[in-house]
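Example 4.3 (complexes with small molecules)
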Amino acid sequence: MDSASSTELTDADLDTLSRQLGRPVRDVVEVGARCVCGNPLVATTAPRLSNGIPFPTTYYLTHPVITAAVSRLEAAGLMAEMTERLESDPVLAENYRAAHQHYLHMRKAIGERSGTGPVPEIDGVSAGGMPTRVKCLHVLVGHSLAAGPGVNPLGDEAVEGLAQWWTRETCSCAGAWDMAGSAPDRELSRHTRTQGLTPDELEAKRATRRSAAETARDNAARDSAARDSAVIPAADTHPPETP
Ligand SMILES: [Zn+2]
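Answer. The structure with zinc ion bound is encoded below.
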């Protein structure tokens, strides 16, 4: 596998994912899809979080250019239009049900690879509204990018709809996220970033934090359920515009 198709999660990927999201990532076990340049596009999360909570949403879009573009499609009403077509087009509905099954199959395999094992609490539950509705295009696009074309018909359509902002063949990473300083650690998550610190104050905090970063990573695994659920979208809820 070359670097642009490997699902293996590296330390550099974790750094990039945290920068893309502006917060530390949790319980990510693989990279679901990569840019042609090798940067992550999709984070793959284990079906059970380290705090024990079942987690049905396996693929999470992380690339800011793509998440913003998908939000534009949603704002334009594409989800309602797709859901209506599912009700009137039996072939599309059947292919979408197959995508749902594929999602469940992939998640089971990821659970096995990551050591999570079976998660019976979410048996038969996928994400994004599958198998009969469209409730989150980010989920469908994440699935399409991870699975490749021809698996999720509505995810593929949404990917095609992104063409004016992003395509699979083009790198749109330059300037898409902040490369300055260290990657967000737990204290630099969205909860504290909103406190109105000046750039100088932020840099001072970062300097202090660099030495503590290792400890923070260890502690992250033991973080509380409340905190995890505050930063990761729960099953079937729509992620915020900037996840
Ligand atoms: Zn790129």
